[in-house]
Amino acid sequence: MKDVLPPAVSKWQFIEEKARAVLESFAFRELRSAASLAQAYVAHARWETEPVTRWYRFERAGARLEAAVFGAHASTADAELVAMTAGLLAEIGLPGGRRRLTVAAPAEIHGLLTALAVPHEAVAAPTLVFELRADEPLAVGARNDKLVPSLGGPAIAALELKVELERVVEALDEPDESFEPPLTAFFACDGVAARAWALKAAHRLRLDGVRAEIGHDQAALDEQRARAAALGARLAVVVREEDLHAGQVLVEDHGTDRREIVSVDDLESTIRQRVD
Fold this sequence. Notes:
By secondary structure, the chain is an alpha/beta fold. Helices cover about 35% and strands about 25% of the residues. It has two domains: about 10-175, 2-Layer Sandwich (BirA Bifunctional Protein, domain 2); about 180-275, Anticodon-binding domain (Rossmann fold, 3-Layer(aba) Sandwich). The radius of gyration is 26 Å and the shape is elongated.
């Protein structure tokens, strides 16, 4: 996998978070292992402690998502995995017109997918194999009941899913920057005392979940303001030592072009009002 730098990494994080949310809603649990899910399942004899195991992991430095269900024989489990995969790609935001789901499976599974309102191209087959693609395959899955025995385990049913995350990232047309979390406030500081005050003010905001950055260098205020705008900060908090002596700071709202002198005691509440 090639290096992924900001802001492109934000798109990756968005996809990973969506994938985790969908998988967790289907009762999958994340596994951290250098081995494949099936290898870890056999190595730890997981069948001895639970009848059905649902695991997922991000492999190959995060370029692929792997999920598996061990111990589920029913055709409803097959349909569930297909439906989850379709839902995952929809939740990530890949347009329906770009997604094509082909499912080779027994008629019963096609019927279950139709009942779940999962659009798909149906192909008759004795065992489940499916592929979801855009311009190229994004996800493939199958029932593979020979998998666990092939690794030295007992005859236990298995369903496998692999999602090529790098291809999913490429399939999303939105620019990388649109996935970055917004920067709420940039503190443009003039002088040592101003930076020390901004450090405390920003720290309180950050502990409460507000994304903020401080101009720690000694650049001129105009340069720092320009940096705030370039970073897409909603607010620039201009902190001058002489203003602090008067108990106030200047807040510039890039969303409304409004400039306002604010009491230092009211700064946090003012920031929240502007961005809520």
